[in-house]
Amino acid sequence: MRKIGSLESGQQANLFRDYLLTKGIDVTVESASDQWTVWVYDEDHVEQSKSELDEFLENSSAEKYQGVSQQADSIREEKIKKVRENQSRQVDVRETWNRPFTSRCPVTSLLIGISVVVFLFMQSDESKTQVRQALSICSFQVSGDMIRYDKRLVDVREGEVWRLVTPIFIHFSIMHIVFNCIMTYQLGGAIEANRGSGRLLLLVLLTAIPSNLAQFYWSGPSFGGLSGVVYGMFGYMWMKSKFDPQSYFFVPPNMVFILIGWFFLCMTGFVGPVANMAHGFGLGTGMAIGVATTFLKQAGKSR
């Protein structure tokens, strides 16, 4: 901190301090006998501040000094707001990690828990068909190798709107559910801890519905799994980590490589029948939400 000069009154000192603040220069003033001393915090601003002080001493009633106090008050309010936002983001790590995951991330836990319960029910021949009929995007009939269904989604139109989401809980193999649950735990847990349960739930719905609809109109109702939502969460976090540094999201390069590599590998057909349209629409929707929310946030700040 460097002293750059003195002023004769506190009113002048405060006006000059406010003016410098509008220029992005932080100073403090101290009273000493009949003078007010101006101190600059940043060494890089010392010379500019001295020059500004000389101009101020020559004509403190100049037009450029009019209204600066109101501008300075707005700047201080914005700084206070940012400090409060940062404080609200701070979490007592000991308290957080001493709580069970189900308490910290209830939506993520619910997604995994429902998927596991549904998978266990589907291991029984007696309930497998009933579970699939209840959770698939529409009811269907199997006749030999043929699946008959109505593309108009009559069940949904008649009020069973949950069918637009519930296919995410259907998994067909142990590897299918294990992979999806691990990725949901990692991605969903990170988003829920950072953004809260409400926003994660909204993101799940906004990615599940278009990915399920896309897969249905591409291949029919014989699909399921959390992978569309997983790719949606990945796309959201990926874009946030690239375009919004203040989001505190970080997606390791190896995760990007694995998920994008798996995405294209599934499209080749080497790993068997996969809901590729659900993957694609989930990824695209998640990326779009990540980019849109970032630029809307930035646009709001620039006003």
Residue stretches low in confidence (pLDDT < 50, at least 5 long) are 91-96
- Main sheet: strand order: 1-3-2
Structural class: mainly alpha
Shape: rod-shaped
Level-2 CATH architecture of the largest domain = Up-down Bundle
How would you spell out the order of helices and strands?
Answer: EHEEHHHHHHEEHHHHHH
Distance between the termini: 33 Å
The CATH superfamily of the largest domain is identified as Rhomboid-like
Helix content: 55-70%
Count the helices. How many? 13
**Domain module tally:** 2
- Mean of pLDDT: 88
Subcellular location: Membrane
Protein name: Rhomboid protease GlpG
Membrane topology: Multi-pass membrane protein
GO molecular function: serine-type endopeptidase activity
Descriptive account of the structure:
The chain is mainly alpha-helical and 303 residues long. The protein folds into two domains: 2-89, Alpha-Beta Plaits (2-Layer Sandwich); 111-119 and 164-302, Rhomboid-like (Rhomboid-like fold), CATH 1.20.1540. The protein is built from 13 helices and five strands. Strand 2 (27-32) and strand 3 form a beta hairpin. Keywords: Hydrolase, Membrane, Protease, Transmembrane, Transmembrane helix. The chain crosses the membrane at residues 104-122, 168-188, 200-217, 223-239, 251-271, 277-296.
